[in-house]
Amino acid sequence: MIGSDPVYPGYQIHHWDRPDTGWDLLARIMRFHRRWLRGLPAEVARRVRLANALAFFGVEGRAP
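Request: output the structure for the sequence above.
Response:
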């Protein structure tokens, strides 16, 4: 029965029309990580930023 569980109140179950918590922090999170990358040596930053992701998704060789 929806709404009978005190841990997950019924009014919090179906919010498809509301943004998820955290999206308003995305720009702040991206700024933090970009600043962190700037503190790394250039080759390490490039691998973290791009090369590792390309390898993970199987698209190596397309890295600039």
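Residues 22-64 form one domain.
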